[in-house]
Every structure is written in C-alpha cells, then in structure tokens.
Amino acid sequence: MIIAETPDGKKHDMFVVDYHFHIWNAAKENWLRPDLAKGWINCFYDYTRALSPKEYVWDWDTYAYYGEEKALRDVFGDGHVDMAIFEPQTLMYFYHKGFSNVDAISGYVTKWPDRLVMGSRWDPRDGEAGKALLEEQVRKFRIRPFQMRNVKLYTAEWKEENGGVSRGWRLDSKEAYDFLEKNRELGINVQVAHKGPTVWPLDKDAFDIGDVDTAATSFPDMKFVVTHIGLPRLDDFCWVATQDKNIYAGMAVAMAFVHTRPRYFAEMMANLLYWLGPDRILFSADYALWHPKWIIEDFLNFELPEDLKKEFGVDLTMDIKKKILGENAANVWGIDIEQQKKKLKNDELTKKLHLEPGTIRVGEAAKKGKPLAR
Amino acid sequence: MMAQDAEADLKESVLRALSTVTDPELDEPITELGFVKNLSVSEDGRVSVDLVTSTFWCSPNFVYIMLEEARDVVSKLPGVKEMRLTLGGHHDSDRINGAINAGKSFSECYDSEARGDLLELNRMIRTRALRSRLYSMAAALVRSGLVAEEIPELSRQDVTADGDTFVVNSRGRIIPITDPADVRRVARYLSFLDGLGRTPTCLIVWDLDGNPPPEEEFVSTLIAGRLAKANFSLNAELCRALLESRLNREEP
C-alpha cells in the first residue's frame, strides 16, 4: 500500500495489485540448451538495463537467480505491492526445470494466499495431460476465491515435437478452444495472452493478436488480458480492445517507459485512455524485469502533458491511477479490496517484513515529457 | 592510391544503398538504428556486411525481409561482384545466414515450418508504415497552416519540392513547409507514395494499391494513422534502448 499526498493536502490510498509477477531461475546450472537459455535471460537483462534507473540494475548472477526471499522483500517490502499475481513462463525447451513455473511458488502461495495469487498456464500441444494437471492445480490452489483464476498463454513457447521443434501455437486453434472450454468448466476465467517472436507457421506475424480477438469473441464470459498492451502491435491492440470489451490492457513492460522515456509513456497512456477508457488498464512492474518501487512512485508522480490531454480529451487523474494500480485487477480477479486491506494489515508477511504504507508527495516534480522532435 | 579511392567509393555506395533498407517493424533505416556493425569491401568488388538486431529474439520473418532487401540492394550496385551478409547474435543466425547467402527464399529456409513466403506479412507491415507516414505528413501540413479537411482534396502534384522546402498549393493559396523536421515528414511520405510505382492523382492513399481512405471523416483516418505512428515510435525507441544495452554488455 502506498499513500499519495497531492498538493491540495488530500491523501489517496493506493491498494496495489500487480497482475504479472515472476520468480525465475535462469542460473547456468538450469540451462538445458545453453545458447537459447542464455539468449533468453540476456534479452530480459537488456530490457531491465534499457529502462531502469541505474541504481536498480543488479549484477548478472543475481538477475539470473534472485530467489524467493528476495522477491518477496522487493515486491511486498520496498515495492509497495499488496498483492502479486503469478504468471508462469515455463520454457522447458530452454531450461532443465523450466524458467518460471508453478513449483517455484506453490509453497509461498499456500503460506501467504492473501498476498500471492497462483496462476498457471497451458499449452494446447500438451493435450489431455495438460488438462489433468489444470484440474489438479485448481484442487490444490483454489484456497481463496481469487486463486487459480488465471492462466498465462504464451503462444511463442518452443516445444519438442516429433524429434524437431514446434515454435508456437495459436489461440484460435481447435486444440486451444478445447482448453478454453476446460478453463470455463474449472472457473479459470482470466486468460493472460502473451505474444512472442515466433508462432506456427513461421511466415505469419507472431505478434498478431487476431487470435485473441477471435477467442475473446467466442468466449464473451471470459476476460482476456493482453500482456505488454500488444506491443509491438499497440495499434491492433487498441482496435481489437475497442470492439471486445472483455479485453484488458496488461501494462507489463509498458509501465517501465515511465522513468527514462516519459513522453513515450505519455503517448501510450493517452492512446489507451482514449481507446479503452480507464477501467481496462492493469498495472504491472513485471518483476524481476523491473522493481515496483520506482515504477509505482514514478507513475504516481506522472502527469499527462497538456498537448496530449487536449488532443485526446483524456486525463490521468489520481482516481484513474488508483484504478490502474489495483481496482481494475481486483475487478478482473474478483478481489474484495476492503476485505483484503483488513486481512493484510496484520498478516504474517506484514510482521515479518515490518511493512508500513509508504507515503509519497506527488505533483511537485511531476514527470511529463515534451513533444518528440522526431 | 587508385585502388583505395575505388574501395572508398564502393564502401560509400554500399552504405548509401543500405540506408534505404528499413527495419519493417520500425520503419527506420537499419543504418540509423545501428544494425550495421561492420562493412568491408575489397578492390575486386567483394562486399561483406555484418549485421546485428536489437535482440537475440527478433522475429525470423521480419529479419528475413530486412536481410533480403539488404542483399538485393547491395548486389545490384555496379562494381559489386560478391555480397556476403552475416547476421550475428540471433537465435537462428546460422540457418538464416546460410539461406540468405545462397539466395533462398524464406519458405526454402524454413521449409517445414513456414506455409509460404513473406508477401502477405510484408504488405501488412508496409501498409502500417504508409499510414504512419501519412499521419506525420498531415500533422506537418496542419502545423504549416492547412486545415485537416482540405488535405484529402490535394493531388500529388499540389505538393512540390522547392530546394530544401516544400510548397503546397491548396484552395488557391501557396503554403510553404519550411521547418526541417516537417520537411522530412513530408519527404518520407512522398518517397513512400512515389515508391509504390503507380501515379496516384490523390495525395492521400490508405493502402499499397493506392486506394483512398474509406468513406469517413478524414480526421478519424488521421487518428488511426496517429496510432500507427505512435506504435512505430514506441517500438523503435525500445529497440534502440535494447541494442544500446546489448552492445555495451559483457557476455556471462
């Protein structure tokens, strides 16, 4: 929890829900195919280095494997986050035990089920075994109404198949629809779609979110969160999300522009507010890509520049920031914020980490960003 | 001395040719993005270009479009006898380099994983580039004194180059475009339009076949173009930042 104090003396309580949180292990011992495993974590590291304030960049070894304890301290301790939703990314083709999977976090979820929210994943190529695993995970982890409600659907996942490699799948395939039906049956109603650089077949645009559009239309009772707001296809994303009201903008990666590239951040926020409105934008720091502390503080201190406010007719008020930081995700996952506030006030983690809500004074040195020269 | 001059000239013309190649997803020249890492030419016309992309994971299909274009524009230069491209630090470097230098198409490179070549993908991404450039030009025209509504009335011939500036002839007025950034925006759209290889009478086209925007207010067309433009800018900025980190990092 963080309290934002505005120049008019008002205090705004911000309950923070991060919809896209990782605990990964990319240490060398875990590399199954070293070139790919190294290429993966180095690419992540470049994202971090490219957009973080310098003092938040760790050394490579810490970055490759930081461990659960550090993650909890960073996210819930310094990081102002009240609840974090786990999104696995298994990558079994790259790493022996996977990059970031459910096992890494299961013990922590059962220990702190009001803090950490379990999400799983599936891959249509896993067939019946994949469905059986989902059933088991729901039995095991549906220990709160909001637990095990989401799956991360990474369509660029590589998988060994028939002695070769299959480099992806589509969400509008028959096999994927079978899994969506299974989700419906199990009450897993939040689909976190995530595009990567490859897909089947390779001549198609891997970043095309047409398949999310099709699935969202076919399953109107479900919610589809598109991670990193469809980038590098923000334009398609906005079109599609304008039509399908069950599509949400997942701000993982996108949030990180706020510090070093505020004008770019302003452009994307203005577009999202214009096309989607304020109720379908979900915050994430994408830990450990970025540390939530600076992202949240910068975001609270961020104001839309006047030219964009005027051009788009939108604003990013404190109430809208509050929605983006927590209320919107709470609505999607069915989290009762008031109830959670009471529960978290004196929970074990609060005691263990000596948590207290931080206060930040905003609006004095607000970040805006001037119009781009390009 | 002569040989050295010839080498320097060839090198310069190769660089100039490479500067016409854009990253299709960013609509910016690969030379400005820093993707050309090394370039060497020999006096007998052998050219070797080392390329790098912003990440290890750039989509193979877009990388292929970019490399094919680089191969083709350099190969056809006078004095080039042999052209060798080497893409480094990509998850499929070996396969892509082998296929590009053997003159293979994408579907030959990925015979079992691709269903066809990249024409459709290329059209999709070039259409976006067109719309993004259209928005930038229209914004430049509005800044220079036109109203948005009169822009669709303009024909290609109404915009003419005048030294380092442009002149627009609209509704009986002569409007100069002099701001260098705006001049560049107009030039970028016009070069794309002229490069479509047809002679459109309308200044404003909305697709690669030279069709006008759908029947709706021009302002909503511009909003769509603006979004395409915002997307390119964001992606390009991210790629520049990623490449900078990548080139300044030690391998573990």
General shape of chain A? globular
Number of distinct helices of chain B = 8
Strand order of the largest sheet of chain A: 6-7-10-11-12-13
pLDDT under 50 segments of chain A (min length 5)? none
**Class from secondary-structure proportions of chain B:** alpha+beta
| Strand runs of chain A, count | 14
Helix content of chain B: 40-55%
Your description of this structure?
The complex is a heterodimer of chains A (374) and B (252). Chain A has helices at 34-51, 60-64, 68-78, 103-111, 127-141, 174-186, 210-218, 234-243, 257-260, 262-275, 292-300, 306-312, 318-333, 337-345, 348-353, and strands spanning 2-5, 11-14, 17-21, 83-86, 116-117, 119-121, 150-154, 159-161, 164-166, 190-194, 223-226, 247-250, 281-282, 358-361. Chain A is of the alpha/beta class and 374 residues long. Chain B has 252 residues and is of the alpha+beta class. Chain B has eight helices and eight strands, in the order αββαββαβαααβββαα. Chain B has helices spanning 2-18, 30-33, 60-75, 93-101, 106-109, 119-143, 180-195, 218-247, and strands at 22-23, 28-29, 36-41, 46-52, 82-88, 159-162, 165-170, 173-177. Chain B has a three-stranded mixed β-sheet. A three-stranded antiparallel β-sheet of chain B has the order 6-7-8. In chain B, strands 1-2 form a two-stranded antiparallel sheet. In chain B, a hairpin with a 4-residue loop joins β3 (36-41) and β4 (46-52). At the A-B interface, α1, α2, α8 and α10 of A face α6 and α8 of B.
